[in-house]
Amino acid sequence: MTSLADHLGKFLREHLPRERQASPHTCEAYAYAFQLLVCFAADRLKIRPSQLTVEQLDVPLVLAFLEHIEAERRCTARTRNARLAAIHSFFHFLEYRVPSCIEQTRQVGAIPIKKTDQALVCHLNREEIRALLLDAPSTRSASGVRDRAMLHLAFAAGLRVSELVGLGS
């Protein structure tokens, strides 16, 4: 059996911040996701968190955890997907360090994210566009005049930033 504590510690303290150069916010979010998962698993398996093994975090347990955070903790599908992303990342990390868990990492990695509705972007009225975009650049400098012209062009033509920047190429 493979101790979860050793690998989880290396993942959170070394892999994420040093190797992946994850932001402190990402590291905190992942740590919190695993705090929830470890507490859930320990409670479900009736053992102490320090006694958990990697092998005990199987697909049925992970799915039960994801259901738990949606149903009992009343988290949204987006939050569920964020917790699942942390779990996927950890199991990807394990894939290269614990060869005996390759099949388990494949199975956990195959747990799909949940589809979510994307919020529609509301439109801005003329006054909001003028205040936020067109009047924001200072016309006292050459770069301000340039920025204002670019914003006018982007708004009038409905250009994306990449399309606007690509005009200069």
**How is the main sheet built?**
none
Counting helices, strands and paired strands, the structural category is mainly alpha
Distance between the amino and carboxyl termini: 57 Å
At CATH level 3, the topology of the largest domain is DNA polymerase, domain 1
The number of helical elements comes to 8
Number of strands: 0
User: What global shape is seen?
Assistant: elongated
Q: Regions with pLDDT < 50 over 5+ consecutive residues?
A: none
The CATH architecture of the largest domain would be: Orthogonal Bundle
Order of helices and strands: HHHHHHHH
Strand content: under 5%
How would you describe this structure to a colleague?
The protein contains eight helices and no strands. It has 169 residues and is mainly α. It folds into two domains: 4-109, DNA polymerase, domain 1 (Orthogonal Bundle), CATH 1.10.150; 126-166, no CATH class. Helix 3 (59-71) runs antiparallel to helix 4. It is elongated and about 65 Å long. The chain starts with a helix and ends with a helix. 16% of the residues are buried. The model has no long low-confidence stretch (mean pLDDT 90).
